[in-house]
Amino acid sequence: MAAQRIEIVAEMVAAVLQVGVGEGDPVAAGQEVVLLESMKMEIPVLAEHGGTVAEIKVAPGDVVQEGDVLVVLHP
């Protein structure tokens, strides 16, 4: 049986300004995990569900596409 995962994805094409969590960190629902920038606007990406950070898929300076996985949580 595969472990459950919660994927936090980009909702638009943007540049990653900041990653606000590290692997192993606890995350609460509503917590900002990544800060994106698109068209000179900062867009916080919030966790919809709480969990523990299992994997960070991006770094500051990366450009992400709509639907790209940013952070993976374990419930």
Overview in brief:
Helix content is 0%, strand content 52%. By secondary structure, the chain is mainly β.
Describe the structure.
This protein is mostly beta strands and 75 residues long. It has one domain: OB fold (Dihydrolipoamide Acetyltransferase, E2P) (Beta Barrel). 0% of the residues lie in helices and 52% in strands. The chain is built from no helices and eight strands. The chain has strands spanning 6-9, 14-19, 26-27, 32-38, 41-46, 51-56, 63-64, 69-74. Strands 1-8-6-3 form a four-stranded antiparallel sheet, with no helix packed on it. A hairpin with a 2-residue loop joins strand 4 and strand 5 (41-46). The chain is globular. The relative contact order is 0.38.
Kindly list the characteristics that best describe this protein.
mainly beta; 4-stranded antiparallel sheet; 8 strands; globular
Which SSEs are present, and which pair or pack?
Elements: E1 6-9, E2 14-19, E3 26-27, E4 32-38, E5 41-46, E6 51-56, E7 63-64, E8 69-74
Number of helices: 0
Largest β sheet strand count, sense and barrel closure = 4 strands, antiparallel
Structural class computed from helices and strand pairing: mainly beta
* CATH C-level class: Mainly Beta
How much helical structure, as a percent, in the residues? under 10%
Oligomeric description of these chains: single chain
